[in-house]
Design goal:
With 147 residues, the protein is of the alpha+beta class. It contains four helices and six strands; from the N terminus they run H-H-E-E-E-E-H-E-E-H. It has a three-stranded antiparallel beta sheet. The protein has a three-stranded antiparallel beta sheet with strand order 4-5-6. Strand 5 (107-113) and strand 6 form a beta hairpin. Helix 1 (2-32) runs antiparallel to helix 2 (40-60). The chain is elongated, with a radius of gyration of 21 Å. The relative contact order is 0.13.
Length: 147
Amino acid sequence: GQLWVMRIHALVAALLLIAAASIAEAILVQQFGVPRGLVMLPLLPLLLYMVFISPARRYRAWGYKMADAELQVRRGVWTEVHTIVPLDRVQHIDISQGPIDRTFGVCRLVLHTAGTMHSLVVLPGLARETAERMRDEIRARIGREPE
């Protein structure tokens, strides 16, 4: 599900780039006599990478693990980022699901944390049941008094 969501988002961005490049190319052809395809042809490999290769690479590079007192998140293709979220720093938890997410049966768990550089941590591509279970577990852990 999540891989298709990522591909569709990339396709929307690619379509916007195609529209902008088409306008730019039309202006260049009309105003400066630039040959047709000078803008669009070099853009095609980038668009193919954006829609067909990049989403799969980003999907494979993403993961999370919930430990007793923290959530560990790993992401990044070119630059790998490991984020550790102490659960006692979580202030607010959201479950978010847009129309494309709903179509493919996935949602995002969004953690808002206190006073850190990465005060928003997002776990995309979770099944609704998984996101709700994680939300309830985190809520239960942050509701406990420290021992």
